[in-house]
Design brief:
The chain has 963 residues and is mainly β. The strands form nine sheets. It has a 22-stranded antiparallel β-barrel, surrounded by four helices. A hairpin with a 2-residue loop joins strand 2 and strand 3. Helix 6 crosses helix 7. The two termini are 59 Å apart.
Length: 963
Amino acid sequence: MMSPHDRGSARGHSRRTIRFCLLAGVAFVAAPVLAQEAPAQSEATQAPQDFGGASAQDIIVTGLRETLQTSINEKRRETAIVDSLSSTEIGDLPALSVGEAIQTITGATTHREKGGASEISLRGLGSFLSNTTFNGRDASNGSGDRAVNFNQFPSELINGIKIYKTQQADLVEGGVAGTIELGTIRPLAFKKRHIQLDFKTNYSPYQDRIRGSSAWGWRGTASYVDQFDAGALGEIGIALGVQRNKTNNPEETYAASSTWVACNPGLAVPNGNCSEVSREQAAAGTPFALVPNAATYRQISENDKRDAIFGAIQWRPSSTLDINLDVQYSKRNYAENRRDLNLSEMRYGLSNIAYDENGVITHLEGRTSLEAVGTLLERDEEYRGGGFNVEWRPADRLTIKADASYSRTVRTDVERSVRLRTDPLDIYGNPTAINNQRVGYIYDVAPGSYAPTLTIDPRFDVNDYALFSDDARLRRDELQRRNRIIAGRLDATYEMDGFLRSVAAGARWTEQTYSDYDDRVEITQDSRAVDRDVNLACRTTFPQSDYLSNAPGNQLSSWATFDPVCQFREYLGTEDPGRNADVRSVANRDVTERTLAAYLMANYESSLGDMPIRGNFGVRAVQTRVTSNGLRSDLQVVNNPDGSIRLVDSGVFDTVTIKSRSTRLLPSINAIFELKPDLLLRLAGYRAMSRPAPSALGAGRTIQLEDGTNFSSVADAISLITANGSPRLKPLMSWNADASLEYYLNKDSLFSATVYYKQFTGGFIPVVLNEDYSIGGQNYSIPVVQTQNSTRKSRVYGLEVTLANRFTWLPAPFDGLGGKVSYNYANSNFRNEDIRLGAVYDPETGETTPGMIPAANLSGYSKHVVSGQLYYSLGKMNLSAIYNYRSKYYQDFVGGNSQLRYVRGNQTLDLRASYDVTPNVQLQFQAVNVFDEPKITDMPVQGSIRQYHYYGSRYFLGVRAKI
């Protein structure tokens, strides 16, 4: 729960943001009226409906203004409710990445990682409710979810982004919130030869604080488009684009662990972990305080290199046949050096706990082991994708399209880390000032603060290398995720006369496979002499100056750090021992999802009196089959002499297969009423679905045993069975209704307001399901907690407003000002329960045990989202500012079955400037994340601080040359 100061601050921030949006809205609404009273401009005389080709009076525009004009035109032309971003010029999208470009579109916002845009939420709803396609096809990724990794597609090589807010039957299935469609150019549509070179150098102030590291990076892009007349063979077009990006993304952070426990503050446990409170005890009135298992101060320096290649060949042998082949390849090599100071036992020896009515701690005292951990994470990610598309018109009214595609992503992370822990003795065998493994600490949170203050016993010097002298542990973790999608599609459209203008039918087949493994090699050693020698040989200077200097209450600026590669070499005689020969594990996932879909859709056009109407209606049927293979670790029962038993892991695995199947019908209707030539009313009703992430469908189970070796039964010996996924999860379904009013005054001016309503057929809740296990040769039915669909109905309703205008009515030179502002409000009562502390349902008894903490809403759900763009064009110079605000939201962890995590509201400001030196040479400047606000997360309830994260701003200076 937020403190009164924090709540007041949050409300004030939201009010200021909404006030900004409303004031901007008044200005944008008033602008067209004033524009009509001003002297006529050559563009203003253009009739609103004449959005097509250029006339003699048209002024040719470029940059952000041209992009906004094109977006307005496309919005008007589409049948569904659509917002888009596109340009006739390569590389003119107003952002450095596709993700940052998308967040300039009405209703779209991002979750930021490493200072850049990553996951996309539409209308304040989470990324898992959206569907993203690339050139009309699903694209694989290495994250384990269904979101496209926007960083693998250079924005310079993307020419169009379209967001369908409403569904229509011929879209690729999926997307309760909407469908995001990325597109590259078709070379014959470009209609001219084009060679372009882009080069940008970037500067990171945070990286400049890293000792011995360059703050500079660069990215270079080259593209070539051409068309050829092949005579009798028809027309041939080719397009090729390449990019290399070498940069760095420094980070500094404080973070608590991802596991939080409800501790009983009334029971003192001076020499152990706190006493946990169960759901039943909490329901009976037992108080509890929410405490993390551990906490970490982390400094990160990084090197990031990405290469991307795009290619396309388009062949048009005749006016009735069009053949396209496109391929994409990207490869990322990424190295992250982490320097951690861990408080690894936050629940040990707790006392003087202060907490509020929601269990949020404001003060506690405890004792913890301190750990100096050095880690080198190396990531290799490769994406291969492509497709073959044929469009054929065998008759004047019949068009047949066929498409086949392939997409594969392989991400491999190799992480080498070395831990050194505190001890009563230092590396020389001398007693420390504490003379204990555990060091006292005090945890405080000031009212209204987002950063807890941790004060470590001043007798312990965290910068003294000699004090980290025990429990050396070397870990080599290798995580690999493989995601492959193979798909085929066939569509046919027949044009007609009369009310029905065309009828379309089609079918689609997709096979998606997802697998991962998480292999660990762990080595420990307890020789103090060896520890001393390695400690002395592998010490490093703390790599950063001014560590967390912007965080209020921060007490640490440095600590003892070591080189993990040196430690591996000195301990083991090798820098990398390699992975295990057998990488099988109960944590592995092996999921195959097959989808078969078919649709029938009709497009219509008519009139009601003098009012033109048009639209479409249809239905899509989708069948989904999931097959998930998981491993079970075999346990053996050992009989003790006293008649009790104990369980031991035999090292043998059994494979268990869980299958699931669902079939859904998705009807849809879209209608457009042209109230006036420049005023449109759109209505839409549809049913939509969003599937769970592939990584959330794992069938693996981890069995945790109780401490001790004497138990009376197998059930008593098993502490907990953790599911790494829920293969029985069904798609999330919703019924939806949208109504939009759109006013088009001219090419630069748009006002649109949309109200929408979504009713979901269920949320997500932990359930207890009995599963069969063979232990000691006997079968046991043991309850396992995992996430499943609930039967509870929930809804979302909202309002989305967009205003775009160019202030042509202002006197020169201010008539070059223009821009767009959009605001989305969403209200939802969806429920996501915490897997450990939330409500849990037992289908055997039909009973629900109340949760200890409040449920979260939809993942990614923000009540308020604001975006604004302001541009200024004066001759050869173009300036623009892009602002985004997003209120707080719940963000789940990839893979599911995890505790609740909330991201607090945040805002970003990006700046962009360009100057045309010549018609073919342009200088560019861009600044990203100008505010440098930290990302702040809470867990497992709002107001309970888990993490604050700083990335810094980034600045880019570049040149573009066209031939």
